[in-house]
Write a structure and sequence with these properties.
It is built from six helices and five strands; from the N terminus they run βαβαβαβααβα. By secondary structure, it is of the alpha/beta class. It has one domain: P-loop containing nucleotide triphosphate hydrolases (Rossmann fold), CATH 3.40.50. Strand 2, helix 2 and strand 3 form a beta-alpha-beta unit. It is globular and about 45 Å long.
Length: about 150
């Protein structure tokens, strides 16, 4: 079975940084990155390709809706043409992850792929400020001040 890791998060959250670390960790495996850029130009894919990894970019829309057909075709092609051990999928920050999971659960993919991990990267430095801004913008009142928890590695 081909392991599939989905790495999501908003623009600037650190997805590409995490993916580069994952690719180094999986350097002994045959891995392909399927990257979705909402805009026309994909910068992250170039950064990963420079490190010697295969990248398939889908741009000009979201793979969960507008570009769904293209995503299905790329996924089928990658599975058929490469003898893979792992696929890393990086959707746009506005993707509906349940739609991507539904695609991966289709019989043609579920028979060959195993969803290994679903990761969401959060910009922890700016999260609190954005959460408070979002709450005041939408007139939602937070029941109590948000709390931060930090785990220190020993």
């Amino acid at each position: 079975m081909i392991k599939v890791d989905v790495v999501s998060g908003f623009l600037g959250a650190g997805k590409t940084t995490l993916i580069k670390l994952l690719l180094k960790a999986y350097e002994n495996e045959r891995v392909v990155l399927v990257e979705n850029e909402f805009g026309e130009i994909g910068i992250d894919g170039e950064l990963v390709e420079r490190d010697g990894f295969d990248v398939f970019e889908i741009s000009n829309g979201c793979i969960c809706c507008i570009m769904k057909k293209d995503f299905v075709q790329v996924l089928a092609r990658v599975i058929e043409e490469f003898k893979l051990e792992r696929i890393i999928i990086e959707p746009t920050g506005i993707s509906i992850l349940s739609e991507i999971i539904d695609i991966l659960r289709r019989p043609e993919f579920a028979s060959q792929c195993l969803i290994n991990s679903l990761l969401t990267v959060v910009d922890s430095v700016n999260y609190l400020a954005n959460m408070i801004l979002s709450a005041s913008f939408s007139k939602i009142r937070l029941p109590m001040p948000p709390c931060w928890y930090s785990v220190k590695a020993s």
